[in-house]
Amino acid sequence: MAISRRGLMLVLSSPSGAGKTTISRRLLSEEPGIRMSVSATTRARRPGEVDGQDYFFEQPENFQLMVNRDELLEHAKVFGNYYGTPRGPVEDALSDGKDVLFDIDWQGTQQLEAKMRDDLVSVFIVPPSVAELERRLKSRAQDSDEVVAQRMAKAADELSHYPEYDYIILNNDVESSVASVRAILRAERLKRERQIGLPDFMKGLREGRT
Amino acid sequence: MAISRRGLMLVLSSPSGAGKTTISRRLLSEEPGIRMSVSATTRARRPGEVDGQDYFFEQPENFQLMVNRDELLEHAKVFGNYYGTPRGPVEDALSDGKDVLFDIDWQGTQQLEAKMRDDLVSVFIVPPSVAELERRLKSRAQDSDEVVAQRMAKAADELSHYPEYDYIILNNDVESSVASVRAILRAERLKRERQIGLPDFMKGLREGRT
User: Fold this and answer.
1) Min CA distance, B154 vs chain A (Å)?
2) Domains by residue range for chain B, with CATH
3) How far away is chain A from the Cα of B187, in angstroms, using its nearest Cα?
4) In this complex, do B186 and A183 lie within 8 Å of one another by their Cβ atoms?
């Protein structure tokens, strides 16, 4: 016996280097009921990228049309390209009892919050220390000192937005942080208002039909 | 590195026979940070019971004084005796970052809700079916048919109050239900507003002291 439920939107935010990407990947591989949100973008498709899987690749005119029609739950311009979250696939997943994972910053979270408050569960990942954050950013061999410095400045900005999140995880240890995100997901799925099949189930139970 | 937090009050309610007592015992033995709330009562102490551990045994006059002084978070009369939750030990535990478990009915939950809303996490355990509930009540050898019938009637009343709870767990399987309650506890401990040490920690992080 199971009670049908509405899916939820799980947002993971953190400064780059706090461990968010590792945690997201682990979550997607360990939790069958959740999938990554696929963004729409105006940037050119790179070799190997699949339309509708990595991104929905859109012409700028079409992207603007989606904005005008309120078909994007959030959108932003990054390095001259537009990125956004199409509403349709998210609504379909939620109605179908599937959860959707978002790896976005505080600005995207604020936009989602404004449109989808009841479906949103927001988690902010905090690095254990500034020294550790810097060490992790530097260990990415491909990044120049300048890029690291930029990321540290951006991290300070991102960190100031922690009060806008529902849950805060101090990422001392990846195993423990993955377990914490999974606990949040399990708990949020048990929230009464997400279990949309409950009124029917309880009626059956009270009337002795269940 | 850990961030100090305020404890929480975890309420487990269910009709008798839904499995609440088993789940409570497992939770107390597996989760070090939570302890059972100790009630005050006017009923006589039974052999083997320890004052301050099983109950705080009080004279009726003293119990009434506690009610008048608003020293009880909730109270009720059951079979001619009074039972209630003293405020002091709960407040001490919460301030100390410890969680408190309550095994109470919907009436007690409503009273706690009125006084301690921000600290309260309420969980309602639902039996998988009426037949299973009856089977579990009957398997308690000590109960007469009359007692079972009374409990079934009380169960129907209790079940009607599920919309007042934060989380609903369908108790198909004890292992899964214990894991669900533990996930709720872990998640609720990660709620931003319970992590009272966060503002200081984040200040240190932004200023590079952490």
Assistant:
1) 11
2) 9-37+99-206 (3.40.50.300)
3) 5
4) yes
A167 Cβ neighbours under 8 A, 6+ residues apart: A121, A122, A123, A124, A184, B187, B190, B191, B192
Looking at residue B170, its pLDDT comes to: 95
Q: What is the pLDDT of residues B32-48, one digit of tens each?
A: 999 999 999 999 999 99
Name the pLDDT band for A130 (thresholds 50, 70, 90).
Answer: confident
Which value does ipTM take for this structure?
A: 0.93
The answer on pLDDT for B139 being more than 90 is no
Phi, psi of B72, deg, nearest 5:
-115, 130
Helices (H), B69-173: 87-95, 106-116, 130-138, 145-159
**Residues from chain A contacting residue B160 (CB–CB below 8 Å):** 206
Please, what is the average pLDDT of chain B? Answer: 92
Burial of A32: CB neighbours in 10 Å, binned 0-12, 13-18, 19+: exposed
